[in-house]
Input
Amino acid sequence: MTKIVNHWIGGKTAEGTSGAYGPVTDPATGEVTTKVAFASVEEVDAAVAAAKEAYLTWGQSSLAQRTSVLFAFRALLDAHRDEIAELITAEHGKVHSDALGEVARGLEIVDLACGISVQLKGELSTQVASRVDVASIRQPLGVVAGITPFNFPAMVPLWMFPLAIACGNTFVLKPSEKDPSAAVRLAELLSEAGLPDGVFNVVHGDKLAVDRLLAHPDVQAVSFVGSTPIARYIHTTASANGKRVQALGGAKNHMLVLPDADLDAAADAAVSAAYGSAGERCMAISAVVAVGAIGDTLVEKIRERAEKIKIGPGNDPASEMGPLITKAHRDKVASYVANAAGEGAEVVLDGTGHTVEGHEGGHWIGISLLDRVPTSAKAYQDEIFGPVLCVLRTETYEEALDLINASPYGNGTAIFTRDGGAARRFQLEVEAGMVGVNVPIPVPVGYHSFGGWKDSLFGDHHIYGNDGTHFYTRGKVVTTRWPDPSDAPTGIDLGFPRNH
Output
């Protein structure tokens, strides 16, 4: 019998009533294993209504109550990390160790949320004028929503809702319909941890559900992670409806390798960052820029390592890389490799014909490596989101920097060098939101914020860290004067107030 994933509304499972369902496949076999209910407008409205009702009490709850729930949730998430990872592997396809890493990074944000009392401390200035004090405080927004991608079905929601509910908001999550089970399991664990009904809700679906969240008058803010075209749409639409928006878009992350770099370390890093999770990461390195005469040596070192990667089902402990999420995506990724030579690139490794014995129906693609890729090639211009690494050549650091900064994306970037001066210059001059120095995937720790520049971010706030806390709260300034009983009446003064 095919498994059915339903909504989670008001603290319990809510069976779909729209009659619409989407297929969820096992990427390693290509078989449909699950159906996910697609929400109607009415079902989205029910989730928002449950969140709105819960906010009446949760928004007034104490910090101690909120953090006690989050501490309990953290313990449950830690205890069930293998189970969550198995759900991710079954529906996304990434190998189990990678799925465990995803849960671990999500736990970092739960840790941050458990200490939210420090982040929500206000400010007080006394005696700004005679017997006048001024205080700044931050308060929750109300009902907020998260729309999350398929590539991190646990981690990205965990980047959002722990901070949101710690700040006193209630939450409606619309996870990817391609791998929805992890989100529902997180909801169950939150309920087990003691989160009141309606504070966290999950609705599944497609554009209809998304558009309703963007337009719903009771949703105060929307967080999104996904492709640039959809991020732009989310930002434009939600902003037009008066909502606060953080929309993280796509990426084309460059890794600059200078002639003085340790080329073995650089090759290890390039392979790990390009092909981990089959390249389905917004922080994947998809373009290596080799400076000077090192290009041939670096490409050969990358090729030697890439050819040894073991590709297979994510639940096989021997597998280092799994399949892609869908057959359609697999075919799209393959098309970039098939067209690369015609666009002027040298195809060093072509993984488009790769299959796995016993799993021939899976969404398999092997490692692809393209060298001397011109910037005009689609393989360079587009976010491929697959295991395809482009290598570009430049003669100087300046030429490489100009190339990177000319990209419309500005999510993450890295430099490999032994020269501290060059590294310092790069981190100041490169136009990207996250920079690694001899670190290929510079995803910040939880107490710093994650976010890019240019077409990789729409909105003013990055995600989690201090930016996350500020996004999920709004400031209020309170000016107070308590007159002394001996004060004489001051009388009427129509002039603009002055501090004295």
Remarks:
- The mean pLDDT is 96.
